[in-house]
Write a structure and sequence with these properties.
Blueprint lengths: L1 H10 L5 E6 L2 E5 L12 E5 L7 E4 L3 H7 L7 H13 L3 E3 L2 E6 L4 H16 L1 H24 L5 E5 L10 E5 L6 E6 L2 H16 L5 E6 L7 H10 L2 E3 L2 H16 L1
Parallel strand pairs: 9-10, 10-11
Antiparallel strand pairs: 1-2, 2-3, 3-4, 4-6, 5-6, 7-8, 8-9
Helix pairs in contact: 6-7
């Protein structure tokens, strides 16, 4: 085991602390941190059932840390957790995470293990992204069901010489196409404002519609950008679901 500990010191160029915790178990103090500034919890020991392998583990600390702010209490969360483990070849044994490695790959697997730990502790942020993505799923479901009579086309590129500017949905049922955009954050709002300006500069005939996840959450500057350039805005998806079809008919008349 002493050879392995020296190998770890060598790979980290001495920037690692190694402390014995119990018989054969050593804690590594690495220059790798969680988002709150605490160092990750990493331990090494001889693999119990494979004498030629080294076990890198967290002694259950990662799961415990996550439980302070986040519970894996749904199929979706369980799937995210399992996916992170599988992608990093990490095993979960009753809350203790570990990976077994050959000595020659100990550095690579140590780094892979701590990246896995960081991703798991950031799962609560993944959940926010998952909730945000539901906005576009709901928008798509509404467009393809309640607005199908307007012949929606998804992911349209109006300017062929400017392929990075994409319209979420185009409706080609009137004298001018309707371009529909969904907005969940200020970055998307800025991109849409730029797209509308480029379309106007190219003198495209179109009518623009913007559907917000929640317009009140958007910074004032981005609200102004869109108000100046969009033909019609819906403050929430619920508002668009209630009045979108009638608005399309009225604006196309």
């Amino acid at each position: 085991m002493e050879h392995i500990l020296n190998l770890i010191k060598e790979n980290f160029k001495g920037q690692v602390g190694i402390y014995p915790r119990r018989e054969g178990l050593f804690q590594l103090i690495l220059p790798v941190f969680y988002e709150d500034g605490d160092m990750v919890d990493v331990y090494v020991q001889q693999c119990p059932d494979k004498k030629d392998k080294i076990r890198i583990s967290d002694c259950g600390m990662t799961f415990m840390r996550l439980s302070y702010t986040y519970d894996i209490n749904s199929p979706t969360r369980e799937k995210i957790f399992t996916t992170i483990l599988n992608q990093n070849s990490v095993i979960n044994e009753d809350g203790n995470l570990y990976i077994d490695t050959s000595p020659e790959f100990i550095y690579q697997n140590l780094m892979q293990f701590v990246v896995c730990q960081q991703k798991i502790c950031n799962m609560r942020l993944w959940q926010k992204e998952t909730v945000r993505s539901l906005f576009f799923e709901k928008l798509e479901a509404f467009v393809e069901s309640d607005l199908r009579m307007f012949k929606p086309e998804k992911s349209v590129i109006p300017l062929k010489d400017y392929p990075i500017i994409e319209v979420d949905y185009s409706f080609e049922f009137s004298r001018k196409p309707f371009y529909l955009f969904g907005v969940t954050n200020k970055d998307k709002a800025k991109n849409i404002a730029i797209a509308l300006l480029e379309f106007q500069k190219a003198k495209l005939p179109f009518i623009s519609m913007v559907v917000h996840e929640n317009m009140e959450d958007l910074p004032k500057k981005e609200q102004i950008y869109l108000t100046q350039n969009a033909d019609k805005q819906f403050p929430t998806l619920e508002n668009f679901q209630e009045t979108g079809a009638l608005t399309l008919e009225r604006m196309a008349a």
